[in-house]
Write a structure and sequence with these properties.
Blueprint lengths: L9 H9 L6 H14 L3 H43 L6 E4 L5 E4 L1 H7 L6 H5 L6 H15 L1 E8 L2 E10 L2 E9 L3 H4 L9 E4 L5 E4 L1 H7 L19 E3 L5 E8 L5 E6 L1 H5 L16 E5 L5 E4 L1 H7 L9 H4 E2 L5 H9 L8 E5 L7 E11 L2 E10 L1 H46 L8 H25 L7 E3 L1 H16 L3 E6 L6 E4 L1 H17 L5 E12 L3 E3 L2 E3 L2 E10 L6 H4 L19 H11 L3 E7 L3 E11 L22 E5 L3 H13 L3 E5 L2 H8 L8 E5 L7 H9 L6 E6 L7 H5 L4 E5 L4 H12 L1
Parallel strand pairs: 18-20, 26-27, 26-28, 28-29, 29-30
Antiparallel strand pairs: 1-2, 1-5, 3-4, 4-5, 6-7, 6-10, 8-9, 9-10, 11-12, 11-16, 13-14, 14-15, 15-16, 17-19, 19-25, 20-23, 21-22, 23-25, 24-25
Helix pairs in contact: 1-3, 2-3, 13-14, 13-19, 14-18, 15-16, 16-18
């Protein structure tokens, strides 16, 4: 923790706090002395005299220490002044009330000698100096020092404070945020105002004051809408002008108002900024869309030097219709003031430009002014939003399809289990039944991948050491890669723990390793590495931001054919695949994406065509110890009579038929109901004894949790089993409020069903 600078000796500090004044003590000493002289008993007189001398000596000692403390403070303040006197940065020393006791040469040169408090000196430099100074001073009192970056009218400033004897030392380091900010002090003829993120005016030049006829405190004092480039505003005098807004540091925005005169100015002496140096990109267009002129920022934004034969259609694309038609509509006055976003054709990277067209006159000839604004970041946010909406829609579709599929698969695999009970391995039909069962399990795995993508699967996370997971999977992964591909696993001696579902983590590793194997048809090496990293700053890439912190990075690296750039943005989408028909479902990477995101991690891909691909998975590191392995589930009870009554409520007839037969085969008494209303009718008979409610969650009419809560009012001791094709997380909060309840996900086998019922009854 930072300490106060130049701290006095502790004894001197204590003396300064407890030093009593001399004059109130003198009467007490005189009274005690007089009492000693008048005392009849010599011993009493001596005691009073000793007490008076002790009090007087203590007071004099504390006064001496106080004088030494004050002298020490003055000496230390002189030392502080000597250190900062020649500092190029303005520095001040203040007391706790903010009164300035000293300021160095840089501060006097920058702010003058007027003003008794630091707040008055900083007024006009940035908004709300009082609250900023109070906040920093409180932090310095607690930790010894504090600092904060604030937005000023000409850039940014770092205000720092240290606690020193008797007060605080302040330093103010000012920096310009951009070239535009550096121009804030220059004589600019354009009307200009600088506002912060809240719309408060930080600076306004003379041209803007003259144009508005007043000095404003907020942009909204004159204009009702938020400022944006290309917007046309009406001034108090009725004149309409074009807004040119540029973003600066610390959330500030620099706003210029442009009229025809400004957009045509040549920058001659006395005219301030000319067309070439306007703070926004600007084009002059002829009636055929030819570029008559382009200023410096427009050329930089379009990454082009348009000549006399170039047209706007040669510089931008992606409008959705011919650019020439757009220009013609603008000349006709049909689309003026409505911005369009296009892509710069000649930019080496993807650059999007917002273009606003406005008509004008130049020597009697109609022209168009095209105001250009960089919209790359806006387009990236739009693409991110569209992508998230698409992913959400696909996820909802996947979840709904998975629910219906799980009901079908429960009936298929369940009745297959019933048939297998009546056939042994020597039966001719046994192999066919096994094939049906295996393919039903494959279909269930496919549904699980859909749920993983939609992030609606049920996870059972626990603390995992990736080294143990990689060791346990080593043999299986070696079998997966085959003989032509080598698998090399590299991991450090120490690795932080992560929190994940072990089964799903295995699925992630297998999918990535299989993809790496398929990318190397002629053989090669797949590397699986894991390491700890610490991010001091947020990591931004691929439309995601990884916050600072400790992470475990798992990488799967191959030397295969690579992924083409046009496919990189689609690889995590479901059913997207570059493999031939029959070689994959296109769900492998989407499953990886869903599991990693549901675990709270991040996944990124880097690929070079012909050289290979690297998948990097970032898992948040966790502290703690790894959980002990869960005890093995008890074996399912053998066939025989069972005990207990089960009320089975399921709207899907095939699932209900399988579950009822399976439980009756185990000896349980089963009462069947097609919906919740029928189940409640059965329970109205007090003679009916029920030990377990086995109910679907989602049903027409009253759902499972609702009817169970109503039934438990009269039968509080009954155990509950909820079954559903949806993930448990979708109603986990509801289930948590129902006592003695467990969840059985669909599809389930005969063994799963009977084991769950037996566990509830035991």
């Amino acid at each position: 923790m930072p300490q106060p600078l130049l701290t006095p000796h502790p004894i001197l500090r204590m003396a300064s706090q407890f030093s009593p004044r001399l004059w109130p003590v003198l009467p007490v000493v005189l009274v005690l002395g007089g009492g000693a002289l008048l005392a009849a008993d010599q011993i009493v007189g001596l005691a009073l005299l000793t007490l008076a001398g002790t009090i007087l000596g203590t007071v004099l000692l504390f006064r001496l220490l106080r004088i030494l403390h004050d002298h020490s403070l003055r000496r230390m303040r002189r030392q502080v002044a000597g250190v900062v006197e020649r500092d190029a940065v303005p520095a001040f020393t203040t007391d706790a009330d903010g009164t300035v006791h000293y300021q160095n040469r840089a501060a006097t040169s920058r702010f003058g000698a007027d003003g008794q408090t630091l707040r008055r000196r900083l007024e006009g430099l940035f908004a709300q100096p009082s609250s900023t100074l109070y906040r920093l001073q409180r932090q310095a009192e607690e930790s010894g020092a504090a600092r904060e970056d604030v937005a000023t009218c000409s850039g940014t400033a770092r205000l720092s404070v240290h606690q020193v004897p008797g007060g605080f030392l302040w330093r103010l380091e000012e920096t310009a945020g951009s070239d535009l900010e550096g121009r804030a002090a220059e004589p600019v003829a354009l009307p200009r105002v600088i506002v912060n993120s809240a719309g408060s005016v930080l600076s306004i030049n003379r041209a803007m004051k003259k144009l508005l006829g007043q000095e404003i405190a907020r942009w909204s004092d004159v204009f009702p809408e938020q400022p944006r480039s290309g917007q046309q505003v009406t001034l108090p005098n009725g004149e309409r002008m074009l807004v040119a807004a540029t973003n600066a540091a610390a959330g500030r925005k620099e706003i210029f108002l442009l009229g025809d005169a400004e957009m045509q100015s040549t920058g001659e002496e006395g005219q301030g900024l000319g067309f070439e140096e306007l703070p926004v990109g600007l084009l002059r267009l002829g009636q055929q869309g030819e570029v008559l002129a382009a200023n410096r920022l427009a050329r930089e934004l379009l990454a082009a030097e348009p000549g006399p034969d170039d047209r706007l259609s040669d510089l931008v694309e992606g409008l959705g219709r011919p650019v020439g038609d757009w220009v013609a509509d603008a000349f006709a006055g049909r689309i003026l003031g409505r911005p369009e976003i296009v892509r710069a054709s000649h930019a080496p990277e993807e650059v999007f430009v917002q273009v606003t067209l406005r008509r004008g006159q130049e020597e009697g000839t109609p022209v168009l002014y095209a105001l250009l604004h960089d919209a790359t970041e806006m387009k990236a946010l739009e693409a991110q939003f569209v992508q998230s909406q698409k992913m959400q829609a696909i996820g909802q579709l996947a979840g709904g399809v998975a629910h219906d599929f799980n009901n079908l698969l429960t009936a298929i695999s369940g009745h297959c289990d019933l048939l297998l009970l009546r056939h042994d391995k020597s039966d001719p039909d046994y192999a066919d039944l096994v094939q049906i069962h295996q393919n039903a399990n494959r279909a269930a795995s496919l549904v699980g991948q859909l749920l993983a993508f939609s992030r609606k699967q049920t996870l059972q996370p626990q603390l995992i050491d990736l080294r143990d997971a990689l060791t346990d999977l080593g043999h299986l992964l070696n079998r997966l890669v085959g003989e032509r591909v080598r698998l090399r696993v590299a991991q450090p001696a120490e690795l932080d723990l992560i929190r994940a579902d072990p089964r799903q983590l295995e699925q992630v590793l297998m999918n990535l390793v299989v993809n790496a194997r398929d990318a190397m048809p002629k053989g090669g090496e797949v590397q699986v590495t894991a390491r700890n990293i610490r991010l001091e700053q947020p990591l931004s890439r691929d439309r995601a931001v990884v916050p600072p912190g400790d992470y475990v990075v798992l990488q799967v690296i191959d030397a295969g054919v690579g992924i083409p750039p046009e496919s990189m943005t689609k690889i995590f989408e479901p059913f997207f695949t570059t493999k031939r028909a029959g070689e994959g479902t296109g769900l492998g990477l989407s499953t990886v994406y869903g599991i990693v995101k549901q675990t709270g991690g991040f996944v990124f891909a880097d690929s070079v065509v012909g050289e290979g691909t690297t998948f990097s998975l970032y898992f948040p590191a966790h502290e703690g110890t790894r959980a002990a392995p869960e005890p093995a589930e008890p074996a399912a009870p053998v066939l025989g009579p069972g005990e207990g009554v089960v009320l089975l409520v399921e709207d899907e007839a095939p699932v209900r038929a399988f579950a009822a037969r399976a439980l009756r085969l185990r000896g349980y008494t089963v009462l069947e109901a097609e919906h919740a209303e029928e189940a409640l009718e059965i329970l109205e008979n007090p003679e009916v004894k029920v030990d377990v409610f086995l109910t679907d969650v989602i049903m027409p009419g009253v759902d499972g949790p609702t009817w169970v809560r109503e039934a438990l009012r009269d039968r509080p001791g009954v155990k509950v089993i909820f079954m559903s094709g949806y993930a448990e997380d979708s109603f986990a909060d509801t289930q948590a409020r129902i006592p003695n309840s467990v969840f059985l996900p669909k599809p389930f086998s005969l063994t799963d069903l009977t084991a769950t019922v037996q566990a509830q009854l035991s």
